[in-house]
Write a structure and sequence with these properties.
The protein is an alpha/beta fold and 158 residues long. It has a single domain, classed as Rossmann fold, CATH 3.40.50.1360. It is 22% helix and 14% strand. It contains 4 helices and 5 strands. The strands form 2 sheets. Strands 1-4-5 form a 3-stranded parallel β-sheet, with no helix packed on it. Strand 4, helix 4 and strand 5 form a beta-alpha-beta unit. The longest helix has 11 residues. The radius of gyration is 16 Å and the shape is globular.
């Protein structure tokens, strides 16, 4: 999808962050090319890139990035980015190996609708049914910032 499409994550990031701060390089996924072509281009663009921070959310279904439950993209171990079609949108996502190579993986999760997913991700065994449970920093630190509602199904929450 083009970067000015209302469903575009890039548009959201541009409006809420990139337009407000001085940035270095921005590696935008050119979704308007279609999933496969955009993913191939992005894979090449990410060669040699090491993420310092992988900033993630978690959806009510346990997805993160565009890594959805039981999707083929969860199995990819060689490519840095892949097409991840979902519902009516051609998506492109970085793969688990690319994202987990970040020095820090930071999850920010808010809201009651995420509580079950948060429990599956942080209190149960990793599973492709909750893709975020598969994404932790491989050599660094993983941090979860949760509001009370999102953390409600975890033990020891007061």
């Amino acid at each position: 999808m083009p970067p000015d499409d209302e469903r575009s994550n890039y548009l959201l990031a541009q409006r809420t962050l990139l337009d407000r701060v001085a940035t270095g390089e921005v590696h935008r996924i050119r979704g308007e090319l279609g999933g496969d072509q955009a993913a191939a281009e992005y894979h090449d663009e990410l060669e040699g890139v090491a993420l310092g921070l992988s900033f993630q959310g978690i959806g009510p279904d346990g997805h993160t990035a565009s890594l959805f439950p039981n999707a083929p993209a969860l199995e990819e171990r060689e490519r840095r980015a892949v097409a991840a079609p979902h519902e009516d949108v051609d998506r492109v996502t970085m793969t688990i190996p690319m994202l987990s190579a970040a020095s820090k993986v930071l999850y920010l999760v808010l809201g009651e609708s995420k509580a079950e997913a948060v429990r599956k991700v942080f209190a149960e065994d990793p599973s492709p049914e909750a893709p975020a449970s598969l994404l932790y920093s491989s050599d660094g630190e993983t941090i979860a910032l949760l509001d009370r509602a999102a953390a409600a199904e975890l033990d020891n929450i007061s």
